[in-house]
């Protein structure tokens, strides 16, 4: 005989067990969701509390005057750092973002008497009334397309610090880590990748810098240049986001464009060649990376040079080298983000400074035979 009642009981039991399991799963999901919600809520509350606190005076009851000097040519980042160092604001980054959000500017160089009871608005109002304290003692010009060692030599010749001391500071890991904290918008751990020759290669922006005392420290010189790099790069945040590119990658590509460019060159077309090659997994094969890998200047790159084992040598690696090979100016930085739309895969610089762009190796070799003896 068949026992239908027994089967029905078993079925009911299974359904009951499934129902209980479902209730347990729902409870677990609810508990996990609640925990996540609380964590997110706690993070938001902490962030809100932290920012709210940073916007308040350091000490509303302390009006003791503090002497603060803002040098000529100070960027908003530098001014914010000076204020934090003197205890006038709690957080330099919050102050910098605040003045950017409020679209404040026109701060004056000068000597100020500020205090810890001042609000952001009072500090900003004071910084607009300063008097110029002195004329520039000297100017330091860093041309485009210079390597870090060349920059160290220029600083040595102009300021007097030894090239060895300058390079030691530029390679001081503890100092570099401090800079990463000071300039998080441009400096990341990418500068510490294994194989990088100099962490700050390509990060010291080419420009003319004015200094207002005779013997600025090496740190002051480096950070003045980084201030300028931060200022330039910050204006290209939309392009970086659109390209999903890091600042390190941007400065690396810009350095290749800078090294390949001439006064008459269309940098956007050179940039397009690099992008077109990367799109089809074709090596960039740019000679300046070989010379950088070799660590020497040569008028002509030989075939044997192309085989040098290095994360900078774009004849043997795919894509961008491990880091910048020189400092790039704004024209090259802009070209690195906004290349021309072309089908070119090759370019050739003639002795006259003209750059010839071609789509195929056959065309390239034909032009090479015409112009390169």
Automatic annotation (TrEMBL):
Record carries keyword Transferase: no
Keyword line: Cell membrane, Cell wall biogenesis/degradation, Lyase, Membrane, Transmembrane, Transmembrane helix
Site for Important for catalytic activity, residues: 260
Name used for this protein in its record: Endolytic murein transglycosylase
Transmembrane segments: 28-51
Organism: Bacillus salitolerans
Membrane topology: Single-pass membrane protein
Intracellular or extracellular location(s): Cell membrane
Reaction equation(s) it catalyzes: a peptidoglycan chain = a peptidoglycan chain with N-acetyl-1,6-anhydromuramyl-[peptide] at the reducing end + a peptidoglycan chain with N-acetylglucosamine at the non-reducing end
Cross-referenced NCBIfam families: endolytic transglycosylase MltG (TIGR00247)
Protein family membership: Belongs to the transglycosylase MltG family.
Record-linked CDD domains: MltG_like
Gene: mltG
Protein's job: Functions as a peptidoglycan terminase that cleaves nascent peptidoglycan strands endolytically to terminate their elongation.
EC number(s) given by UniProt: 4.2.2.29
């Amino acid at each position: 005989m068949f026992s239908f009642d027994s089967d029905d009981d078993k079925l009911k039991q299974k359904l009951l067990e499934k129902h209980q399991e479902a209730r347990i799963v729902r409870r677990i999901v609810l508990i996990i969701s609640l925990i996540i919600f609380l964590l997110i809520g706690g993070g938001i509350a902490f962030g809100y509390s932290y920012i709210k606190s940073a916007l308040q005076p350091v000490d509303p009851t302390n009006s003791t005057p503090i002497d603060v000097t803002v040098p000529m040519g100070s960027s908003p980042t530098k001014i914010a750092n000076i204020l934090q160092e003197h205890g006038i604001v709690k957080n330099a980054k919050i102050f910098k973002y605040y003045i950017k959000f409020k679209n404040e500017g026109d701060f004056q160089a000068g000597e100020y008497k500020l205090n810890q009871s001042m609000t952001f608005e009072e500090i900003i109002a004071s910084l607009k009334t300063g008097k110029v304290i002195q004329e520039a003692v000297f100017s330091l010009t860093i041309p485009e397309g210079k390597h870090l060692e060349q920059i160290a030599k220029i600083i040595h010749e102009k300021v007097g610090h030894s090239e060895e001391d300058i390079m030691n500071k530029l390679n001081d890991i503890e100092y570099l880590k401090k800079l990463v904290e000071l300039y998080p918008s441009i400096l990341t751990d990418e500068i510490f990748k294994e194989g990088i020759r100099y962490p700050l290669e390509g990060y010291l922006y080419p420009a003319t810098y004015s200094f207002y005392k005779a013997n600025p420290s090496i740190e002051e010189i480096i950070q003045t240049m980084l201030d300028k790099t931060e200022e330039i790069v910050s204006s290209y945040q939309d392009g970086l986001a659109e390209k999903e590119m890091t600042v390190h990658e941007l400065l690396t590509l810009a350095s290749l464009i800078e090294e390949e460019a001439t006064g008459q060159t269309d940098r956007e077309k050179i940039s397009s060649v690099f992008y077109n090659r990367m799109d089809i997994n074709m090596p960039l094969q740019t000679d300046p990376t070989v010379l950088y890998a070799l660590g020497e200047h040569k008028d002509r790159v030989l075939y044997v040079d192309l085989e040098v084992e290095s994360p900078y040598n774009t004849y043997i690696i795919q894509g961008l080298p491990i880091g910048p090979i020189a400092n790039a100016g704004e024209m090259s930085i802009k070209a690195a983000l906004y290349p021309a739309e072309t089908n070119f895969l090759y370019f050739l610089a003639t002795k006259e400074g003209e750059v010839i762009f071609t789509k195929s190796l056959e065309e390239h070799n034909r032009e090479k035979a015409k112009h390169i003896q």
